[in-house]
Design goal:
Elements (H helix, E strand, L loop, with lengths): L7 E5 H15 L4 E5 L1 H5 L3 H10 L4 E6 H10 L5 E7 L5 H6 L3 E4 L2 H14 L3 E6 L11 H13 L4 E7 L11 H20 L6 E5 L1 H6 L7 E4 L10 H11 L11 E6 L2 E5 L17 E6 L16 E4 L2 E6 L7 E4 L11 E8 L2 E3 L1 H5 L6 H6 L7 E4 L1
Parallel strand pairs: 1-18, 2-3, 2-9, 3-4, 4-5, 5-6, 6-7, 7-8, 8-9
Antiparallel strand pairs: 1-10, 10-16, 11-12, 12-15, 13-14, 13-16, 14-15, 16-17
Helix pairs in contact: 3-4
Bound molecules: pyridoxal-5'-phosphate.
Length: 386
């Protein structure tokens, strides 16, 4: 028997299907969709999301590291593909090549090592050349790019030119358009250079969720979609651009797939004048009934929601009183009749007619939606529901 964890996560298959359908329609039939499942699938859980996405017909996955690739690989089916967009250490190259895992190459020197790994393992390496277009993270340009093309052509029996790619620096904000447009032009110029030399990648790709929604010309052969799959808009700008493009004044095509719940651990009465929890962060001004919840910031519940956030109990908002501790926090339930130990508590998601959105969580803090989600510990049990 497994003992019970202090909270639990439910993942909606139908909400995910809805998001996949919306995104597929948006990007059109010519463009492939790679699901970005880095950061434990933005906190949702790699094992669960891999399975759920495959049920939606998605069989391409993108991750930030070889370590994450390994977790997807353990959970995905034989014919799914995995692409590492970030760190792959030298010593793991052979593992990647022998398992048919695709990866970014952003230094010319890397190609020599990749070639060696391909020869050694007897498998063709699936290489994505990442180019620099203005984000100034990883990516090559100029002579190393040109040399890489020559190298790929020369060694094409061992190296497959699987992709030519870049990443845009801030496509979710309209105010960055001055920066994004030149990046798009620069990337398309580099694509032309490769094509002119008759060295064609299988996939040209540059778009994340925001770019795929707001800049149709970035969709090309493949898009790398993270945040939108999980049901969040990359930003208000992206949402308004969608409304404009669709000619609607109201539309909610993305659905949150996560619900996060716990239960009441204890209930007690606090007299007027008493302080609740550590220090003097909250003083009861009248007699209060409070509920103690069995999780805190070590369980992914944002500490900056101290005295500011709320949870749902019996469909009613219960405000946080005092500080969110490492493993506990308290909420005011004075206004909720019949509340009992063991009652279900919704931390994120819907209960009766009330809802706590990821954004209502993060608007009160300095956190990004994706940051809040990505912090959910992998130890929380996750269940796939309809
Ligand atoms: C995280 C990431 C994405 C996905 O971004 P979203 O905004 O979540 O869609 C795409 N490409 C790269 C290189 C990334 O690191």
């Amino acid at each position: 028997m497994m003992v019970r964890h202090s909270s639990r996560i439910y993942l909606s298959q139908s909400a995910l299907q809805n998001n996949v359908n919306f995104l597929r329609k948006k990007i059109g039939p010519e463009t492939r969709l790679s699901a970005v499942v880095k950061a434990n699938a933005y906190g949702h859980g790699i094992p669960q999301l891999t399975r759920m996405l495959e049920r939606c017909g998605v069989n391409r996955f993108s991750v930030a590291s070889a370590h994450e690739a390994e977790e997807v690989h353990r959970n995905c089916s034989e014919d799914s593909s995995i692409m590492i967009m970030g760190i792959l250490y030298d010593e793991d190259l052979e593992w990647a090549v022998s398992n048919g895992i695709e990866f970014y190459v952003y230094h010319f020197d890397r190609l020599e090592m990749v070639l060696e790994a391909a020869r050694k393992t007897g498998r063709k390496a699936l290489v994505h050349i990442e180019v620099e277009t203005g984000t100034n993270r990883t990516g090559m340009s100029g002579r190393p790019f040109s040399k890489s093309l020559t190298f790929l052509k020369k060694h094409r029996e061992h190296l497959q030119f699987q992709g030519l790619c870049t990443h845009l620096g801030g496509s979710e904000s309209l105010s960055n358009e001055f920066k994004i447009r030149p990046q798009i032009r620069k990337f398309l110029d580099l694509v032309k250079i490769a094509e002119k030399r008759d060295i064609r990648p299988v996939y040209r790709h540059m778009a994340c969720s925001a770019a795929a929604i707001s800049y149709p010309e970035t969709r090309l052969d493949l898009v790398r979609i993270g945040v939108a799959l999980y049901g969040s808009w990359p930003s208000p700008d992206t949402y308004y651009q969608h409304l404009q493009a669709s000619g609607k004044s109201k539309d909610a095509p993305l659905k949150r797939i996560i619900t996060w719940k716990t239960d009441i651990m204890d209930i007690k009465l606090v007299s007027a004048g008493e302080f609740i929890g550590y220090g003097t962060a909250f003083q009861a001004m009248k007699e209060m009934k409070i509920a103690v919840l069995p999780l805190g910031y070590s369980n992914g519940y944002t500490r900056s929601l101290s005295n500011r956030g709320y949870v749902l109990i019996r469909g009613v908002k219960a405000p946080i009183v005092g500080l969110v501790n490492m493993n506990l926090f308290m909420v005011d339930v004075s206004h909720i009749p019949d509340v009992q130990v063991g009652d279900e508590v919704v931390l994120l998601g819907k209960q009766r007619n009330s809802v706590i959105r990821v954004s209502s969580f993060t608007q009160r803090t300095q956190l990004l939606n994706t940051e809040m989600l990505a912090r959910l510990p992998s130890a929380i049990p996750r269940e796939i529901v309809k």
